[in-house]
Automatic annotation (TrEMBL):
It comes from Verminephrobacter eiseniae (strain EF01-2). The chain crosses the membrane at residues 32-53, 65-83, 104-121, 127-152. It is a multi-pass membrane protein. The keyword Cell membrane applies. Pfam families: RDD. Keywords: Cell membrane, Membrane, Transmembrane, Transmembrane helix. This is RDD domain containing protein.
Length: 179
């Protein structure tokens, strides 16, 4: 009786690292954190542009308009890059956004994915809105929700995040480009 090698018995297709397979959760979260660092620059430039164009002198003036502008800029950034397959962070971590059939996503589907990505943050923010919580308590609640949302991908049949399932997209591992 021939037994499969231990690695073949224990590796889940989502963690195998094969091209086209769902990437491991640690890889997706590392990419997510790197994307946050890159978004700092995007938000900084958007805020500077908004402040310059609106001649805002105080950070609290036009706060809601600034938030809407930054959301719009982030939406354009992600929609544009995802419709072309990858953001810079996803290129670094060898991830690609595709539709359910493995083809590139359309701009409309990329925009839908961006809107559904707000499920990472909006539920805890909405739950906290009626309360006057300290910044530390808010950070703990949001971090807890992010961790829970990430772990919920373990219950998806292809180990995808649920916003991808709702948007009809998948995050897949891709080979490194040839040197």
């Amino acid at each position: 009786m021939s037994a499969a090698p231990p690695a073949a018995r224990t590796a889940h297709p989502a963690q195998a690292g094969a091209p086209g397979a769902a990437p491991a959760l640690w890889r997706r979260m590392a990419c997510w954190l790197y994307e946050g660092l890159l978004m700092f620059a995007v938000v900084f430039i958007a805020g500077y542009l908004f402040g310059t164009l609106s001649q805002t002198r105080n950070a609290l003036d036009n706060r809601h308009a600034l938030q809407a502008f930054v959301c719009l800029v982030a939406g354009i950034y992600f929609t544009w890059f995802w419709a072309r397959g990858q953001t810079l962070a996803q290129k670094t971590w060898h991830l690609r956004v595709v539709d359910k059939t493995g083809r590139a996503v359309t701009e409309a589907r990329a925009l839908l994915r961006y809107l559904l990505c707000w499920l990472w943050f909006l539920p805890p923010l909405a739950a906290m809105a009626p309360f006057s919580l300290s910044a530390g308590a808010a950070a703990v609640i949001v971090s807890g929700w992010v961790a829970l949302w990430a772990l919920l991908s373990r219950f998806h049949p292809q180990r995808q995040f649920w916003h991808d399932a709702l948007a009809g997209t998948r995050l897949v591992h891709v080979d490194r480009p040839p040197k």
